[in-house]
Each structure stands twice: as structure tokens, then as C-alpha cells.
Amino acid sequence: MKGDGDGWAAAPNGSAVWGRNGAAGLLLVAGQQMLMQHRAAWTNNGDTWALPGGARDSHESASESALREAYEETGILPDSVEVLDAIVTAGPFPADPTRPELAGQWTYTTVIARTKTGETLPTTANEESLELRWVNIAEVESLPLMPAFAKAWPELKKRLTAES
Q: Alpha helix locations (H) across the chain?
């Protein structure tokens, strides 16, 4: 059902993560560049850089969720990209019996895709972004990254390097 993924899920050490059914983000590549989102200050882990993405609805695959969220946050149409892979880069985090209001078994899936043209695409940021930017893959680490994305980045970068 549309929107049923909005809400919090249990995470380690008493914390919470967004997306009752998990979350997904789009790692979109064009040549040696990838699309990055500077998250608005009011968002979870605001004022950091990560991938466009968000909560997964119950009827969606991770790829469908990442493409929908990327469209909402960047204006990039799903049919202008080719999905290459989907990798769980965080979780699963078990339910917390002391916080039954929070969903359990949360995962974050990074969906790797490339533009069909091989060129960068124009973007239109929504209110969840301070900025959208095509960044050289070699320069991603120079940005203040969202902690979870920073943890996943070394493995994702290896995969991108192997594919090019």
C-alpha cells in the first residue's frame, strides 16, 4: 500500500531508522560520476551527503522503492536509468521487544544503476535536499558523508570500480 513504509524501525543500541519495511537508495552512475544528495538539515542525519532514497512500501521491491524515491527527490524518471544490482548494505536489525511500536528486520538496500545515455541527467531537488550534485567517484570521500553511507562506501566503490 502506498505510503505504508513511512515510520520508524528498530536499530541497534536503542536507536531508530526510517522505513517500517526497510529503505532503499539509488546509486546512479554516469561515466565516472555518481549522483549525490546533500540532505536537508531537518532530515534524519541532515546536512550530510548520501544517496537519494527513503522508506520502502510493502508492495515494492528494493529497486522499485529506490527508483520511486529518486524520482521524488531528483526528478529523474525511472525509465531513464538501467538497474544493475541491488545490495543490502545495512541490517537486518532485529525487532526490539522493549519498543514494540517499532518495526523489526529493517534493511537498507543500495540499488546500483547507470543512466541509459551514459551522460549525467538534469535534476530538480525537492525539500529533502539542500543540493543534488554529480560527483566524481574518486571524490566522494571528500564530502561529509552520512555515517551509514560512509560505512558502506568502500564496498560500493569496489563494485563500481569492478564494473567499469
A: 62-74, 147-163
